[in-house]
Automatic annotation (TrEMBL), chain A:
Superkingdom of origin organism: Eukaryota
Quaternary structure, from the entry: Homodimers and heterodimers.
Places the protein is found: Nucleus
Residue ranges occupied by any PB1 domain in the UniProt entry: 162-262
Region (Disordered) residue spans: 1-45, 70-96
Keywords: Auxin signaling pathway, Nucleus, Repressor, Transcription, Transcription regulation
Protein name: Auxin-responsive protein
InterPro entries documented for this protein: AUX/IAA_dom, AUX_IAA, PB1-like
Family: Belongs to the Aux/IAA family.
Polar residues composition-biased segments: 30-45
UniProt entry tagged with the keyword Ribosomal protein: no
GO cellular component: nucleus
TrEMBL record, chain B:
InterPro entries named in the record: COI1_F-box (IPR041567), F-box-like_dom_sf (IPR036047), F-box_dom (IPR001810), Leu-rich_rpt_Cys-con_subtyp (IPR006553), LRR_dom_sf (IPR032675), Transp_inhibit (IPR041101)
Gene3D superfamilies the record matches: 1.20.1280.50, Ribonuclease Inhibitor
Single Gene Ontology BP annotation: auxin-activated signaling pathway
Keyword terms of this UniProt record: Auxin signaling pathway, Developmental protein, Membrane, Nucleus, Transmembrane, Transmembrane helix, Ubl conjugation pathway
Highest taxon of the lineage: Eukaryota
Any one GO molecular-function label of the UniProt entry: auxin binding
Pathway terms, separated by semicolons: Protein modification; protein ubiquitination
Domain F-box: 61-102
UniProt name for this protein: F-box domain-containing protein
A Pfam family matched in the record: F-box_5
Claim: Membrane is one of the keywords in the record: yes
Length: 299, 663
């Protein structure tokens, strides 16, 4: 959750631009004095500008030498020495500093993620054609607009971004998704799958029937001694057996997974028969419940 | 006129005629319900003279009759009023309601909604707070659609329409929808996430009567374009298809066949991967389109292909809405001239069209009511719009980032001023601008007092009036004073507490307010909460107010749908007190640090407060803390993931089924 803290504190209760390394108490003390000060507009003297890291202000500095900062904020800046002050004219330096410190006001200006992504994509595709596109790119990086959920500038920045992979199982109608980044080995994976698909047979019960699934151990799943094997589809669209490659390599190449039955007889057979019996029983039960309900409604 | 004829019938004792007049009256006067109900009760009392007065108020009115009357009422606000009259009206109304709208999916449990409205046909849900659009709500916060879909599948399987906004929809949800609702017709997902194209394939393959499938600005895990080929050859009922947010290419032949066999297709919004030749062949097959979203508009076309495309566009005699136009090259703009005179809605916010071409295009759109553009339009473009598009009702100007490097900003407040002068019907504005002045705001308010929605985003925080360096208080004061019908407002720029005093005093019909980087102290919030009577949604970020105003106006929060505050100075202590004081509010603290580990007076990062009858929710992630109502328990962190909830539900379900067998 490290990323969370970075992003949160940069847009935290302290005015934006304060480096996250600051002590919370100092900032609060400084800010509480702000409430009583009356707002003036211009601050004479310094052209100091809080590193708002929005970059938006940076583009307009040449025109406006009056501070865009209220006096209360600048009193904050004077009281807290660790605040960075950037002269407004050094645009590129600002943006690079801003980017390097990660001071980004999350969600400002208020544009939808979809729109920002679109702008960025357009900029990329028109990279060589138009001056406009490079402006768009500059805009998005300069303003530190927190763009997409897809790329690394996620709100919760952590190395463990959830990697959701779909898992379907033979005989089960509805597939599930599991987060591979929350697991750390094949054992964990097998345990999770066992918990999801095998321990509670009614978990995927629906009107089409529920299936009896033989109790299976996680270890049995992995070494192939149970009736089911876990397979995955990798980047080349081939179906491979899980467990052959090192875990990290597996994480890098897996696209989706499937739990297959290994019994040669499909459908009919000892378990097939039990399945049919249980399915019919369930249907009967459902019908009776529905009939009762209908009776109740009629009275 | 209907009223007087009814009175006449009544006085002559013609009960039946009186009744039919009443019914026709209802069909016309849906919005003037309250006086009508009063009239209804009077006329009934006069006509059915045998009934005693106490029985009048609909208590003994035959339920079939009442049901028939109420079934004419569509608007949900009116239906809510009807259900408050008495118990039998409540019962009748709930049995006949078909369209259900839930503005906050955590305000009520899905089971309660399903139980109350058994004949539900259409469900509209909103999940995450509005600021989730701008990444202020961390991933995993909630807004899961699964519990709702599951409950509806169990209790109201005749559901036909599902519209979700800002919710987390998984592939399991989509598969469940496809499997459970036999007559499913409409799926509209706006700003949703969490699903992949596999889910879409399930919907396409299974819903035999699908009419609308729209994905508006969703974040979809794109596993390829073959989901489109899952539409069966027998599906001919498609009316609207919008997949503009997907990236990968769909097979053109599948799309062509789908369009050919859908004679009712009115709205088609393609994604960027559909090229111009594909567009041409699709338009040829669907000249009846009313709404079109093109794909990428930038291929190199030879003369013949160009003329074919021009002909295809000219054949679109009924086209009213145009969008898409990604990467459009200036030389292709004339292709659109043939549809311009009929256009009522034009979305150029993804089109990199620059100035002279924009004016040429817009000057031909005299019937335009809705215009979304980027700031490439500049002030002169907006002036042209003001002179040509007299029917304009909604204008949105988005930033393109193009002019930040220049010293002469081409889009200023003058653009909006000229549009407000020239377009008499303008009522909704979203305007991103670099700087603004008070005089401009005053002029705009004076020109256009009929604003319903005014959202101004001065992109630089704390930016004062650039001519006078004063705060923008006077400008916004003019806006709220003059625009009596203002329902939605977003403020920005340098604002002091005075601005919010004006808003509290004058904006009596304001329903939704967004504030960022503004105000000086607690007074700001106090003015808003004590002043704005109709306030339903308030969202605030980075403003320096604290506990006092929040606690003082706690009662107001139960009349609002929700309050969002982030990066303000509200302490955890205040959240606890608030939660104990107001039992029907969920006070959610979204904070990375557990509240026990920091001093009680330190500010929390984000708070989301909403009224609810469902109690604290059970699907919160680790970083969301809801304050327990009993002070001894303190803070609880119930992080049961919704899939585990499903397990328990299914086991309980099974047990409950087996039990009756034994009795």
């Amino acid at each position: 959750m490290n990323g969370f803290r970075d992003v949160c504190s940069s847009s935290g209760p302290v005015m934006i631009g304060v480096p996250p390394a600051d002590e919370d108490e100092d900032e609060n003390a400084a800010l509480s004095s702000e409430d009583s000060s009356c707002p003036d507009q211009s601050v004479s003297g310094t052209e100091a500008e809080l590193d708002l890291a929005l970059g938006l202000s940076i583009g307009l500095n040449s025109r406006r030498n009056h501070s865009k900062v209220r006096s209360s904020l600048s009193s904050l800046s004077s009281s807290s020495s660790s605040l960075t002050r950037e002269s407004g004219t050094k645009r590129s330096a600002d943006s690079s500093v801003a980017a390097s410190k990660g001071h980004v006001a999350v969600g400002w200006p208020p544009l939808r993620t979809y729109r920002i992504n679109s702008l960025v994509n357009q900029a990329k595709s028109l990279a060589n054609e138009d001056g406009l596109s490079s402006d768009i790119q500059k805009y998005t990086t300069k303003n530190g607009v927190v763009a997409t959920k897809k790329d690394d500038a996620r709100f919760i920045k952590s190395s463990k971004t959830p990697m959701l992979v779909k898992v379907t199982m033979d005989g089960v109608i509805i597939g599930r998704k599991i987060d591979l980044n929350a697991l750390d080995s094949y054992q964990g994976l097998a345990k999770t799958l066992e918990h999801m698909f095998f321990q509670i047979p009614s978990s995927v019960a629906n009107t089409q029937g529920c299936r009896t699934i033989k109790e299976t151990n996680a270890s049995e799943l992995l070494d192939g001694s149970s009736e089911y094997i876990i397979t995955y589809q990798d980047k080349d669209e081939d179906w491979m057996l899980v467990g052959d490659v090192p875990w990290q390599m597996f994480l890098g190449s897996v696209k989706r997974m499937r739990i297959m039955r290994t019994s040669s007889e499909t459908g009919v057979g000892k378990y097939g028969f039990l399945y049919i019996v249980k399915a019919t029983l369930f249907q009967i039960v459902q019908m009776m419940v529905r009939r009762d309900k209908r009776r109740q409604e009629q009275t | 006129m209907g009223a007087s004829s009814t009175l006449l019938m009544v006085s002559h004792g013609h009960c039946l005629l009186c009744f039919s007049c009443l019914v026709t009256l209802i069909a016309h006067f849906e919005s003037h319900l309250k006086p009508f109900l009063f009239f209804l009760s009077i006329s009934l009392s006069l006509s059915f003279r045998r009934l005693s007065v106490s029985v009048l108020m609909g208590l003994r009115l035959p339920s079939k009759v009442l049901e028939h009357i109420i079934s004419f009422i569509d608007a949900n606000e009116d239906r809510n009023s009807v259900s408050l009259v008495c118990k039998s009206w409540f019962e009748t109304e709930r049995r006949t309601r078909r369209k259900v709208f839930v503005g906050n999916c955590y305000a009520v449990t899905p089971a309660a909604v399903a139980r109350r409205f058994p004949k539900m046909r259409s469900l509209t849900l909103k999940g995450k707070p509005h600021f989730a659009d701008y990444n202020l709500v961390p991933d995993g916060w909630g807004g899961y659609a699964w519990p709702w879909i599951e409950a509806m599948a169990a209790k109201t399987p005749s559901l036909e329409e599902v519209r979700l906004k800002r919710m987390v929809v998984t592939d399991e949800c989509l598969e469940k929808i496809a499997a459970s609702f036999k007559d499913f017709k409409v799926l509209v997902l706006t700003s949703c996430e969490g699903f992949s194209t596999d889910g879409l394939a399930a919907i396409a393959a299974t819903c035999r009567n699908l009419r609308e499938l729209e994905l508006r600005e969703c974040i979809v895990e794109d596993l390829g374009g073959d989901w489109l080929s899952y539409f069966p050859e027998t599906l001919t009922s498609l009316v609207s298809l919008d997949f503009s947010c997907l990236d990968s290419e769909v097979k053109l032949s599948d799309l062509e066949r789908l369009v050919s066999r859908s004679p009712n297709l009115k709205s088609l919004k393609l994604n960027r991967a559909v090229a111009l030749d594909g567009l041409e062949s699709l338009l040829r097959r669907a000249p009846q389109l009313v709404e079109l979203g093109t794909g990428s508009f930038s291929d190199d076309l030879d003369q013949e292909a160009l003329s074919k495309l021009a002909k295809a566009f000219a054949a679109l005699k009924q086209l009213k809405c145009l969008s898409g136009l990604w990467d459009v090259l200036p030389e292709y703009i004339p292709l659109l001239y043939s549809v311009c005179p009929r256009l009522t809605s034009l979305n150029l916010s993804y089109a990199t069209v620059q100035m002279p071409d924009l004016v040429d295009l817009l000057s031909r759109c005299s019937k335009l009511q809705k215009l979304w553009v980027m700031d490439l339009i500049e002030d002169k473009g907006l002036k042209a719009v003001a002179s040509c598009c007299k029917e304009l009702r909604e204008l949105r100007v988005f930033p393109s980032g193009a002019d930040l490097d220049e010293t002469d900003v081409a889009l200023t407040e003058q653009g909006l001023v000229s549009v407000s002068e020239g377009c008499p019907k303008l009522e909704s504005v979203l305007y991103f601008c670099v700087q603004f002045t008070n005089t401009a705001l005053v002029t705009i308010a004076r020109n256009r007092p009929n604003f319903r929605c005014f959202r101004l985003c001065v992109m630089e925080p704390f930016a004062p009036d650039y001519r006078t360096q004063k705060p923008l208080d006077e400008g916004f004061k003019a806006i709220v004073e003059r625009c009596k019908d203002l329902q939605r407002l977003s403020v920005s720029g340098l604002l002091t507490d005075k601005a919010f005093e004006y808003i509290g005093k004058h904006a009596k019909k304001l329903g939704m307010l967004s504030v960022a980087f503004a105000g000086d102290s607690d007074l700001m919030l106090h003015h808003l909460l004590s002043g704005c009577e109709s306030l339903k949604k308030l969202e605030i970020r980075d403003c320096p107010f604290g506990d006092a105003a929040l606690l003082e106006n706690a009662a107001k929060l139960e009349t609002m749908r929700s309050l969002w505050m982030s990066s303000c100075f509200v302490s955890f202590d205040a959240c606890k007190i608030l939660s104990q004081k107001m039992p029907r509010l969920n006070v959610e603290v979204i904070d990375e640090h557990p509240p026990e580990t920091r001093p009680e007076s330190s500010p929390v990062e984000r708070i989301y407060i909403y009224r609810t009858v469902a109690g604290p929710r059970l699907d919160m992630p680790e970083f969301v803390w809801t304050i327990h109502k009993t002070p001894e328990i303190g803070v609880s962190n119930l992080a049961i993931k919704h899939c585990c909830g499903r397990f328990t539900f299914h086991t309980l379900y099974l047990i409950s089924i087996l039990f009756p067998l034994r009795c």
